[in-house]
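call fold(seq) -> tokens
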Amino acid sequence: MVLVLPFIPQPRIENIFLQYLLGIPLAVASMILRIYPLLYFKKKSTRSDLVKPGKLVTDGPYNIIRHPQYVAGVIFIIGWFLIWGGIYSFYLIPVIAITIFLQALIEEKYILERKFGIEYQEYKKG
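ret:
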């Protein structure tokens, strides 16, 4: 749907502040926030690969939030839609955010809790 929306005529936001002074910094910051956890995994000598997760990382960006890459993804989508300015696209933001949230829950329950057990449950509480 996101790929089709640019070709659908729709009302647009024509506000330079929202589109460029807010949208671009959000998009750029989210890319940094998306890459930093990957670099942090490398520093900790593990991977973010969920097929064979290495070790549980609970410090650095993961001390602040359990899923910094997913949060950064949602922030990027908001920034991108602000830059693009299509009104109908804003209706997709909650759908995409809920999908990412559900993906995180499934990942926690069926991968991380099974692999790291009590250690992950304690991390979730903290």
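The mean pLDDT is 90.
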